[in-house]
Write a sequence for this structure.
């Protein structure tokens, strides 16, 4: 099993050339966290996650969280790692300084998140869900709620969860039945929630649940759902922990992967009702919760990047050491990294991961600007960009992670099918990513419907226009970057053709939504790779002899010839229609 090394050079290049962090950190609120601060903390974070978390990944997978005597017990080696993470401040990198956070932009936090996600993906879900609770409370919590809960959530002393799903209410949240009965200054919550990530555990002192429920007179459907804050332990008047609330775990799921993460069934109100406090306006809980869900969707997309990076590093290490067969130009028997098909698989993993990272960093950069930029028009444009990019980050990056981790197993050959190598764990862990926080089918419908059709395609047109600005550099390009820009021109044309088709055939959009999303995911992520390749070429022309820049250009070229070429198939699937789906009804899918 290989060690993990954080891709620090890649982070630095993205901060400089894609984020333009020197300018980014000039936005209001970021005065104290300039480039020198980022250059100082990234190596420290890398050291921590490489040395303290990554070595426990496989062991934690073999000792999954479980329920014992009404308590959820997590893998024992995680307790020390979590306490160190809290003490070092890695949970609060982007937290508001008013509540003792470090105040870094989200785009710095996403680099730290990636290191944790690569080190141990199941473990990374603990602070990830807490960030979502922080995000929702920042937007919709009362001043008292913020003062009572945010500091401990930001530090990681307390953790947070998101409670949406019930046995009868998955994607269709209109079916939520959990009850919230008013009782003075609070509500009594009763019902059951399932699939609650880190819903209970023994690592944090308190767990703050955000729960969707209905008040007695609420209207039916989505319009009657409210959001409530339900702590595991109630707070005393001085803010210290009081008595245990009426919420308990009654089951822990046995999952394909992310074994170190307890996925719980939680029961609220067995003893009369769990004390909960309304967050945001009554009957507008979905609006409040979606702020948390969108934040989580971006994080899940980057989980795909993190697990893809870990699988790639392990595949490279194994391929470098495994000797098998002969290769022209290599004396004696060669390590398999010299075999053409193995090189193809490694390049594919590398290209998908680097493209996904660029896409995710770009989206989070816009999210930072949508909240912090001094120009209202820039804030509004960035907010539109985040809306468009979120389903691409969540959908495309997680689909790519499944491909990358599967290739990682293939590079290992038969040893990849053996659990002890660790390659299979990465593939198992990646499989949840296209499912939770809204399946990728839902992301595709959201992208084609809300993000491309609802506004007549205005936001997506802005994105395509930015892509075209980069493609226009072809007139001054050299022989290294001209083919890359030419491929970008074609990708933009394919996206425009697909968009025109969907706008003209809106009634068929749901049939081709997945292919539409994958076409745009390929194209937008490739565009960002081209921007970085052009920057890398500029550094080479300025005299740099750093091999990294040549690697960046070569990886972009591989993406153009071996991955971007899939666009023709996606476009054909979009414009040809899927009338064959209507030729079978539900009974036709039965056998026998």
């Amino acid at each position: 099993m290989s060690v993990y090394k954080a891709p620090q050079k890649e982070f630095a290049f993205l901060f400089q050339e894609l984020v333009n962090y020197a300018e980014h950190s000039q936005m209001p609120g970021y005065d104290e966290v300039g480039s020198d601060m980022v250059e100082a903390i990234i190596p420290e974070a890398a050291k921590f996650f490489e040395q303290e978390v990554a070595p426990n990944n496989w062991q934690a997978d073999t000792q999954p969280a479980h329920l014992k005597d009404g308590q959820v017990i997590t893998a024992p080696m995680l307790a020390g790692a979590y306490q160190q993470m809290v003490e070092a401040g890695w949970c609060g990198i982007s937290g508001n300084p008013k509540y003792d956070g470090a105040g870094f932009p989200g785009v710095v936090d996403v680099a730290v998140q990636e290191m944790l996600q690569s080190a141990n993906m199941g473990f990374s879900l603990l602070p990830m869900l807490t960030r979502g609770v922080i995000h929702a409370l920042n937007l919709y919590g009362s001043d008292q709620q913020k003062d009572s809960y945010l500091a401990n959530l930001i530090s990681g002393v307390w953790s947070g969860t998101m409670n949406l799903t019930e046995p009868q209410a998955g994607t269709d949240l209109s079916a939520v039945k959990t009850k919230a009965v008013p009782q003075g200054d609070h509500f009594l919550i009763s019902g059951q929630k399932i699939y609650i990530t880190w819903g209970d555990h023994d690592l944090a002192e308190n767990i703050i649940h955000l729960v969707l429920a209905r008040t007695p007179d609420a209207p039916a459907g989505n319009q009657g759902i409210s959001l409530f804050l339900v702590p595991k332990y109630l707070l005393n008047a001085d803010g210290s922990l009081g008595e245990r609330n009426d919420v308990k775990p009654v089951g822990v799921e046995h999952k394909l992967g992310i074994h170190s993460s307890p996925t719980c069934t939680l029961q609220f109100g067995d003893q009369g009702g769990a004390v909960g406090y309304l967050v945001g306006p009554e009957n507008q809980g979905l609006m409040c919760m979606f702020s948390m869900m969108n934040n989580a969707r971006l994080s899940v997309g980057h989980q795909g990047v993190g697990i893809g990076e870990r699988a790639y590093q392990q595949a490279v290490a194994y391929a470098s050491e495994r000797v098998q067969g002969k290769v022209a130009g290599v004396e004696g028997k060669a390590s398999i990294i010299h075999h053409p098909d193995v090189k193809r698989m490694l390049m594919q993993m590398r290209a998908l991961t680097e493209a996904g990272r660029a896409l995710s960093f770009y989206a989070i950069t816009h999210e930072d600007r949508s909240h912090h930029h001094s120009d209202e028009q820039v804030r509004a444009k960035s907010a539109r960009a985040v809306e468009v990019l979120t389903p691409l980050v969540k959908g495309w990056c997680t689909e790519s992670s499944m491909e990358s981790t599967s290739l990682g197993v293939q590079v290992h050959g038969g040893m990849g099918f053996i659990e002890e190598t660790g390659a299979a764990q990465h593939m198992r862990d990646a499989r949840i990513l296209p499912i939770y926080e809204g399946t990728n089918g839902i992301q595709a419908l959201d992208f084609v419907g809300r993000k491309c059709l609802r506004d007549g395609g205005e936001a997506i047109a802005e994105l395509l226009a930015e892509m075209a600005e980069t493609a226009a550099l072809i007139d001054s390009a050299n022989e290294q970057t001209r083919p890359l820009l030419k491929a970008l021109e074609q990708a933009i044309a394919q996206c425009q053709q697909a968009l025109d088709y969907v706008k003209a055939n809106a009634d068929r959009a749901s049939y081709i939504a997945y292919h539409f999303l994958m076409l745009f995911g390929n194209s937008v992520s490739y565009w960002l790779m081209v921007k970085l390749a052009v920057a890398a070429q500029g550094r080479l022309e300025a005299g740099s002899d750093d091999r990294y820049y040549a690697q960046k250009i070569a990886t972009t070229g591989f993406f153009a010839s071996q991955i971007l070429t899939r666009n023709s198939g996606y476009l054909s699937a979009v414009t040809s229609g899927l009338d064959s789906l209507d030729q079978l009804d539900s009974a036709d899918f039965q056998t026998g």
About this structure: Residues 285-321 form the longest helix (37 residues). Residues 452-579 form one domain. The chain has a mean pLDDT of 95. The CA atoms of residues 29 and 116 lie 25 Å apart.
